[in-house]
Every structure is written in C-alpha cells, then in structure tokens.
Amino acid sequence: MNTERFFSTLQRDLLAGTVVFLVALPLCLGIAHASGVDPFAGLVSGIIGGLVVAALSGSRLSVSGPAAGLVVIVVDGIARLGSFSAFLLAVLLSGALQFGFGMLKAGRLAGYVPSPVIKGMLAAIGVLLIVKQFPAALGLGDADAVAHSAAAVAVPFGSISLIAILIALLSLAILAGWETRALRRFVLVRLIPSPLAVVLLGIGATLALKLVAPSFALPAEGLVALPSLGSLAALQSALEFADFGPRFAQLANPDIWRVAITLAIVASLETLLSLEAVQQIDPERRHAPPDRELKAQGVGNLIAGVLGGLPITSVIVRSSANVYAGGKSRLSAIVHGVLLLVSVFALTEVINLIPLACLAAILIFTGFKLAKPSLFIAVARQGFAPFAPFIVTLVGVLATDLLIGIALGILCSVLLALYANLRGPIVLAQHGDHYLLSFRKDVSFLGKVSFKRYLQQIPDGATVIVDATRADFVDHDVRELLDDFVDAAPRRGIAVEVRYQPRAQANAQRGWWLRRTASE
Fold first, then answer.
1. Are residues 353 and 460 in the same domain?
2. What is the mean pLDDT of residues 168-195?
3. CA–CA distance from 143 to each of 131, 151, 160 (Å)?
4. What span, in angstroms and rounded, lies between the C-alpha atoms of 79 and 74?
5. Over 80: is that where the pLDDT of 144 sits?
6. Residues 378 and 458 in one domain
7. Neighbours of 395 (CB within 10 A)
8. What is the mean pLDDT of the chain?
9. Residue 170 to residues 24, 33, 132, 216, 409: CA-CA distances in angstroms?
10. Band of the pLDDT at 1, cuts 50, 70, 90?
11. Which of 352, 376, 393 is the C-terminal boundary of a domain?
12. Is 27 in contact with 68 (CB distance < 8 Å)?
C-alpha cells in the first residue's frame, strides 16, 4: 500500500513539476528581459529556486524563482550601482541578510506590516511593470529597424513594430480570456497554462512570418537571445562567478548596502505573503515554518549572487500552479528546476523564437492583476484609515523607491493609529450632579490632556464614577492624575468610585490603581 502511495505521489509530482516548468519558463525569460539583463540570468534563478531553495524549504508546495515584484528593484539597482556585476554583490548580501532574518526568527515580524502598505507596494509594482513593458510591447527599437522590417513604423522616439503590437494584443487577449468560463469548457485550455499558450502563439508567429513573409518578420532584437550552451564549459563561461573577486572591492559603497537591504526586505515580505497564500490553498493546510523559508531563500540568493542570477523569492503564480496541478511534495518544485536546467541545453533554439512582445504582454497582464482598479475601489470602501497608507505607499514607491515607499506607508499607518488612540479614549457624561468618566480603550500618555480637562470640569459636591473596565493599559501619568483627584476629593465633597476590570485587581492591590470614595 505504501509503495502504491509512493508511486501515486511521484506521478502527481512529476506532472505538477512539468506544469510549473511550462509556467515558469516564459516568466523567467520575461522577468529577465524586463530587468534589462541577459535571459540566462532569469533561468539561472529559476534553476536555483527549483534545485536549491525547494530542497531546503519547509514548504511542500512553494515554488521559488525570479519575481516580477523585484523587477523595479533590479532595474533601479543596476542603474544606481552602474553594472550587473556590482548588483550581484547586492544580491549576495541580501541573501546573507535573509539568512540572518531566519536565524533571528524574524519571520513573524512580517505580520506586523499593515495590509494596506503591502497592497500599496504591490499596486505600485504593478503600475511600474505596465509602464516599463510598453516599449517592448510596441516593439520599440532603433530607427534603423525601419530598413529591416516592412512592419516597422518610424516615430519621433525611434520605430515601432506593427507585428510586435499585434502579437502583444493577441497575447493579452489570450491571457484575459484563458480563465473565462467560455474557454475553460475546452479540455485543451484546461491543460495548457496561459503563459505557455502565449509563448506558443509567439513561436508560431515567428516561424510563420519567416516562412511566408520574411520582410514582415521581427528583427533579431525583437526576439529572445539566449546563448547557445552545447557543453558544461559553455555553461561555465556563461555564468558570472568568474569575475566575482573584484566585486568585494565595492563593499564600502553604501549604495550596495542600500540595494541589498531593499532586496532583503521586499523579497522576504513577498516570500512570506506567498507562503501564507500557499497554505490557504493547500488542500491539506500544511504549515510551513516562515523562519526556515527565510533561511532557504537566503541560501538561494547567496548562490544567485555568485552564479549571476536574478534575486529569488517564493512566487505565488508558480506556487498556485503547483497546487492546482496536484503537487504533493517538494519533488514537484525540484522537477521544475531540473526541466529548466535541461531547457538551457536542449531548447535554446526554440526559446530564441519567442518574441519579446509576448513576454512583455505576460508582465503587463501581471502588472494589471497587481494594480487592478477593483483593488483601489475595495481599499477605498474600507475607509480613510486603510486607504491613506495604501495611497501613500503607492505614491511613495512611484516617486522614490520601494524601501522609502514602504517606510512612508508604515509611518502613515503609525500616525493614523496614534491619532485614533488620541481621539476620544476618554468620554465624560453628566446627569445632574453625577458624572461618568469612561475609558473606552487603552489610554496612553496622549490621553493625559483630555483627561485633565475633564477632571477640571467636575464641580465640588459631585458624584463621580471612573469606569476603566474596558482598559487593559492606562499610562502612569493618567494614573497619577486620577490618584491626585481621588486624594483631593474629600476636601471638595466629591464622592469618587473607580471601577476596573477583574484582571487589573492585582495591579490595583499593588497601588497602581486606587479605588476610594469620600466616605473612606
């Protein structure tokens, strides 16, 4: 029975791993192109995510690799540091920081980041993805391309390709319609992932144009350009670790550390969010230790920095594909990594037929899902308190960078929380010469001013009840004001009763609270 179960699980993992590979291949290539680096760098990260991170991860179904959410950091980081080689040092350092986060058990801290801030960050990434991928979707290139393609049209800022635009539009139509009920009725649609369908469309269009209308074919700069790797020696020369030594000379550069910290924080947040999402869709609801996941991601990014790969994170698109394809264990993610490695050697000629417009369409559609209008409407309907940090984070990321935008969003959330705490923690009600002072929530030092003002409004000879049964915490300054008021009450003919919740009884007995009346 155990043998039957093993082979059943193995079969499902092999199938799921193949499905994830078909989803991951175009995403790895597209993210590399969007990041402005060689497509091989995206495949390196996908391979490391499958062979290394999956083996070390505590999650049975999570799949790691290059993430669209990190494209903005990669592009800005390379521009800031001046070269991809220098950026790889930041990737390596970010891996060390992530591993440190895991050792310090910092995984739980992600739960304290406000949800509107995370949504604002993802929405900003979506907007940037859409904006940055439009040139590739238009086939935008040098004006000299007009002479090489009959489908190229000269514009003031270069030339655009009508074929690339058509391919991008058809790709977006496939991506948008693939999940609709009308198309899901067909078995072929249910079997083929939408990114793979887009890639097959692009390959077919490239081959058809070369055979039927060569003058309309996309130029070489409009297609993926993966280096041919016929041997392990060729693979070694394609990797970046050969010039790794000089990178350490830049450790004193503060920009290196800024990019590394940004990568470590954003990649860790995205990983932990993906991990939580995977646990929710896992039919068996298996728990994955977040700190172990951070350490696994840290090791993956350390290796990616050494070998010349893009930064790695757990990716919900690939992970959900793994779940829905029936994956049962980490073997499915490992299989996807093995297939990516094989594709580097065996599928180079096929991969180089993929139009960049197809990959741009996949990323534009991903960006739209991250920043869809319904998200803005849903957050706005929740009220000002969540909407403000959402917008502050979004604008902050677009105007500055991810780290500053996240910091601004968290600061906005903290200020709103302080304002909510300051606003009406204490309420005064009056009926004749009877007064009720109610602590509606915990009272910090920010409530001292309003509490003092209310106490000054109580006249001599009044009867006062201070109801603190709803407060777990009352600041020392507020308690001192209350103690002074109770001490002076007999001289003013005021009868005072202080009520507190039962759990505060021990504190009251130690003198933190005074419960007195004028008759005492």
1. no
2. 88
3. 21, 12, 9
4. 8
5. no
6. no
7. 15
8. 84
9. 20, 20, 19, 17, 37
10. very low
11. 393
12. yes
